[in-house]
Amino acid sequence: MIDLSSQEKIKEIDDLVSGWIKTLAVQTKEQRAKHGLKVSNKDGDHRNLVTNIDRANQKVLIDKILALDPDAHFVCEEAGEARAQSMDGQVWFIDPIDGTLNFVLENRDYAIMMALYEDGEPVLGWICDVPAARLFHGGQKTGIYENERALEPLTDKTLTDSVVIVSGRRLVVGEKPYGELAQRACAFRVLGSAGISFTRLFAGSAQAYLSKLSPWDLAAGRALAEGMGYQVKNLDGTSPNMLLSNSVLIATSSIHREVVKMVKD
């Protein structure tokens, strides 16, 4: 296991992994520009895409982690790595390209995401907005940063004063409470990438995000959001199970109370 016994040790891991991800972000853009993409579908879903770069990025990150800890446990988006069966000990989460549909079709609004948890609790998270070269990283014990700039704790805004980000698919089918949340907010957005949605929260241009998220979609964002003071809860107020998909609301405390009441009514 990696030594996480002090703030200094945690900061060392943050710095090390931040360097990996910054390098990988540059390589991702270079690979696409030089060699293009090889794209395939997962599970026969024409919207669920995977590329050669998704797979290559995941292998790079797994290899680097295993060099630090040969016994490391993983929860990764792409196939090929044995999945952790519990949250005991240290678990690494990897989403090598989040927003692959955006990556393939638009070459914008996609991210590389990683997180490290210990005994079920988030220690560090990393979300790199690759096109914008912005890396959000850190955790509760280190503080949260955009590149080298420390971010201030969030302002506790209410729903009518806020921008919310929602899952477009669940908004279209009328799943509760997506429509009501979008209507009550000052404005709503649909971005197609969990990582990019989280960066909007950290930058202060949105104050809530509601979607059904896989573990690799949520892990890094949760580590960073909780470090800034956001509530990260299931719609029933429970904590997410980090080995399963969850319908999760990430929001200011005031918005979280409003939405929980909305769901109950």
TrEMBL record:
Swiss-Prot/TrEMBL cofactor(s): Mg(2+)
InterPro entries named in the record: Inositol_monophosphatase-like
Biological processes, Gene Ontology terms: inositol metabolic process; signal transduction
Q: Which Gene3D superfamilies match?
A: 3.40.190.80, Fructose-1,6-Bisphosphatase, subunit A, domain 1
- Supply the Pfam families for this chain: Inositol_P
Transcription recorded as keyword: no
KW NADP (keyword) present = no
Extract the CDD domains matched here: IMPase_like
Molecular function via GO: inositol monophosphate 1-phosphatase activity; metal ion binding
> In which domain of life is the source organism classified?
Bacteria
Keyword set for this entry? Magnesium, Metal-binding
Which residues bind Mg(2+) per the record? E77, D95, I97, D98, D217
Protein name, entry field: Myo-inositol-1(Or 4)-monophosphatase
